[in-house]
Amino acid sequence: MGVAPPPSAARRRELADFLRTRRAAVRPADLGLADDGRRRRTPGLRREEVALHAGVGVSWYTWLEQGRDVTPSPQVLDALARTLRLDQAEHVHLFHLAGVTRPVGGGGYPREAPQDLAEIVDALRPHPAYLLGPRLDILAHNPAAALVLHDLVAAPPGRRNLLWWLFGTEWSEAPGWRETARANLADFRAEYARRPGEQSFVDLVTELSTTSPAFREWWAEHDVRAYEPTRKTIRHAQLGALALHQLQTVPTGHPELRLRILVPADEATRAAPR
Fold first, then answer.
1. Cβ atoms of 72 and 98 closer than 8 Å
2. How far apart are CA 37 and CA 105, in angstroms?
3. CA 185 to chain centre
4. In what side-by-side order are the strands of the sheet with 258-264?
5. Measured on CA atoms in the order 122, 123, 129, 130, is the torsion positive or negative?
6. pLDDT at 46 (0 to 100)
7. Minimal CA–CA distance to 257: which of 78, 109, 143?
8. Which stretch of 48-52, 63-67, 157-161 has the lowest confidence by average pLDDT?
9. Element housing 47 (H / E)
């Protein structure tokens, strides 16, 4: 029985194979290359052609395709993706195989719900469902979420934000608040790091640091690995304590957004809205 290679070596081998297959799929004419009369032993581009168009050395690119221990920069990976005509999914996969975090480009971030996702959120009733943006703003919610999360989704523009709800209200008295708040703060911290200097993110941190001692203390810890419990209790002014299970998923085609669905965790909660 063979011994499996260490994860880093296995990933480099996968990266090498991915680059070779994508190089073979690109025709020289796709890069505007004229036929130089030389016989091509394999279909697609030569290694030196990829290296030239990506702006890297031939030897270095050869090492990459050989699975050697070299680490490309995000800029080089972007250049390779353009040269190899990768689509969005392949572009993301390339960064994953290289073990490099893909930076978020300029141009802001999603501030409105795509129409198809808004319709899905609405159709998930009777279960509460809502859509979160990278800043943890509520971009869409259905009537069930408006009932269960009333204070959150009824907040004025600029305050319809999960962190404001958790750290700027009386939520701290609810069971499980600490775990929920820390987990959502960790999610936000990761998004914050991907958008250095994004003013709306900076403003949110500044305001919450001023108004919430808990936020200020936990933000200084720089935690990005807190896990939110799937079962939680929400204290509702009219319905009482609601025990809920939460599912979070990343919608296909919208990797910066998060879809959350809540379902009752006990019979009392199941009967409460009725």
1. yes
2. 40
3. 14
4. 138-141, 129-132, 258-264, 240-249, 231-236
5. negative
6. 87
7. 109
8. 157-161
9. helix 47-54
- Cβ pair 169, 215 in contact under 8 A: no
Whole-angstrom distance, CA of residue 216 vs CA of residue 212: 6
**Which helix (H) or strand (E) segment is 87 a member of?**
none
Cβ count within 10 A of residue 197: 6
Kindly report the backbone phi and psi dihedral angles of residue 30, in degrees, each rounded to the nearest multiple of 5, phi listed first.
-65, -25
Residue 46: is it exposed, middle or buried by C-beta count within 10 angstroms (0-12/13-18/19+)? middle
Q: How many residues does the chain have?
A: 274
Tell me the per-residue pLDDT of 125-154, one tens digit each, with 9 for 90 and over. Answer: 999 999 999 999 999 999 999 988 888 888
Residue 52 has, within 13 A of its CA and on its CB side, a CA count of: 9
Residue 145 tokens read as 């979420």
73: Cβ–Cβ under 8 A, 6 or more apart, which residues? 100
